[in-house]
Amino acid sequence: MPVSSFARKAVKAAVLPGGLVTGRRPGDVVVLLYHRVVGAGGEIDMPPGLFERQLEVMAAQDRVLTLDQAVAGDPEGGVVVSVDDGYRDFHDTVLPLLVRHRVPAVLYLATGLVAGEGDGPDDPDALTWSQLAEAVATGLVTVGSHTHGHVDLARAPEQVCRDEMTRSRDLIEDRLGVACRHFAYPWAVGSPAADRLARELFDSAALDAWRTNRAGSTDPWRLGRTPLLASDGLAFFKAKLQGRLDGEALAYRLLGRGPWRRP
Ligand SMILES: [Zn+2]
Predict the structure, then answer these.
(1) What is the domain count for the chain?
(2) Which residue in 10, 126, 194, 240 has the fewest CB atoms around it within 10 Å?
(3) Is residue 84 part of a domain?
(4) For position 226, which CATH number holds?
(5) DSSP code, position 113
(6) Cβ contacts of residue 119 below 8 Å, gap of 6+?
(7) Which residues of the chain carry a pLDDT beneath 70?
(8) How far is the CA of 186 from the centre of ligand 1 (A)?
(9) What are φ and ψ of residue 155, in 5° steps?
């Protein structure tokens, strides 16, 4: 059953008061999680106009950190912009807006989605390596790994986890000539084996959804992220910036699934 936009907003409004107590404090870091910025509909597709307003708000009112600054433990804290998967709209829509507003971001790339790298025919929305190189050349974009085949690491044997992580890391480093030091778990799920490997192969790993990273008690290999959804609009986006909507996770736990579909 589709969940109406009204119901989604009602849940956000209901959990907001609790966020006043648990919201972001100095030194805390909120890692924002975006997927598509196309405006074709769906919760994890942010309309481009709204995405740009969100960037304006961040740039004007907040401290936008690079992932490296956040992982190093910035004393004042702030927000990090992350985009998952890697489709054509990252180059065509997201990148020009990041450049216009001078906002840094990390792209967690599932390298099997890049043109010419997948097993089957290319997605018409696939990014090319030269588009990714253009993104890196702006100096604003860090490319991290999101596995090669967007694999569910909670269910994958250890050797598959290792292959998926090293294959995507090596492709990024070979094709883009940059170090790939950060990782994000597909579907925000992991396993003890994947955790061991992430610690061995990367400097950080993004794991949980709807969790603000607390100053002094953040494990860089278990970073929490805050998913941004189309139903957030601008008002709930501002609440998420302040770490005040982590409670939205409860609604999705009750629904038994996230705003994204895990096969
Ligand atoms: Zn993903």
Answers:
(1) 1
(2) 10
(3) yes
(4) 3.20.20.370
(5) G
(6) 112, 149
(7) 1-3, 18-21, 255-258, 260-263
(8) 5
(9) -110, 0
